């Protein structure tokens, strides 16, 4: 453990130097910080909207380096030196003995993960009282995923403080995908150490306030995605009329395109009416029949399909004739002329 203590002290000096450098940047470049902060917010908003629409939690990490280019919120201290040492001790430095594993950050990481997720849940629930559950979940996922926690860990210089068996081992891990997970785990471990060293009564609220300060730029930048109107209903309004109908048929078998155990459905929208026999006007795919149907309707409305354009023109003409007092016979004759033309 002496190695860990020595490493923490040495890296702590480097971290202090980095903080002074940040202070100098703040003094010299306030305007630049403001511009980068706005750019970071715009970048994250675009990423969050995309992730929310796709259900994707692997988007680019939140740009905390731009949000807090000058200085991040003050780091709450760990009051217990033994816990702080444990936070920055990788399991590789601990003897291969289950009873000794308590000295690495792994157990603290497990506890910190729970505190962070709970804090994110409470903050989002309070801050956005009208968000639907799915959108809240997507936003929370963007805050607690490994890529984001890794970015926060780097913001405070945590990775350089982690003790490994050797410099070679550190270098080898930095070059792999495991490094982001390690950095995120250390951040989670630090959160747990703060709570434990202050006691849950004081440590819990302290951590929540700190995390909310870190998340504040994300919350300010977040604009809830506008709910999409029902595409099937819009298509029916656009083309609908007596004797016109849209049905849906698979154009290829379901598969697991979205991953093991996650089905993907493929449906074609088939229109019949306005003089056209059953004709495909759009295609869509999705994780359920309902989603594939919506996607097919969206495609029909936006793909510039010739049949859709003609059907729309005929619907408008028919509605105008009906509103103008055309008789049933005249309307039927109009329909017949379209059937003959098609």
Would you kindly provide a written description of the structure presented here, covering whatever features stand out?
One of its GO terms (molecular function) is RNA binding. Residues 83-199 form the RNase III domain. The structure is a single chain. With 342 residues, this protein is mainly alpha-helical. It has two domains: 64-221, Ribonuclease III domain (Ribonuclease iii, N-terminal Endonuclease Domain, Chain A); 230-340, 2-Layer Sandwich (Double Stranded RNA Binding Domain). Helix content is 62%, strand content 8%. It is built from 14 helices and three strands. A three-stranded antiparallel sheet has the order 1-2-3. Helix 5 runs antiparallel to helix 6 and helix 7 (146-155) packs across helix 9. It is elongated. The model is unreliable at 1-59 (pLDDT under 50).
Using brief descriptors, characterize the structure shown:
14 helices, disordered N terminus, three-stranded antiparallel sheet, mainly alpha, single chain, 342 residues, Double Stranded RNA Binding Domain, Ribonuclease iii, N-terminal Endonuclease Domain, Chain A
What is the secondary structure topology, with strand pairs?
Elements: H1 2-28, H2 30-54, H3 64-67, H4 81-87, H5 106-127, H6 133-144, H7 146-155, H8 167-174, H9 178-198, H10 200-221, H11 231-239, E1 245-250, E2 265-273, E3 276-286, H12 289-302, H13 306-323, H14 328-341
Antiparallel strand pairs: 1-2, 2-3
